[in-house]
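Researcher: Next sequence.
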Amino acid sequence: MGTQTGSVAWEICGSQDGYRMYSRKREEFIADFCLISQRTLDDFGYKLLRYHYLLGGDYHLCCQHFKMDRGTYFHSIYRIENRLGRIFAEVRPYPLYPIDEYFGGTTQRESRRRPATETDLFGREVPEELRLSA
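Model: Next structure:
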């Protein structure tokens, strides 16, 4: 993120028209991260996320504050990472993960990649409503 989060970006947001707009991508990312985390996690999970990731507390401090042992603490952190990682990748219209696509701008061009199709053991395409999300 850098040390200075107060910069304004001038980015292209249209197709052939050259439409441009101002944005504060870093602030928008931080706000999206915090709001999605707060809406997704329960109170304890969000407090643990705040202490560990946002305030930078190490496991000694967090274990002492939440009165939990080291194993339970790390299992809780891994569950939070797993849950939020999936949510950040699936949020629409602009997923928070991968980060380079989030900060890459909001162009309306078609993707060069073909959409991923899943096949079963016999090579038949699996309908989208039956696909696994992991």
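Model: The helical segments are 25-40, 43-54, 59-66, 70-90, 99-102. The radius of gyration is 19 Å.
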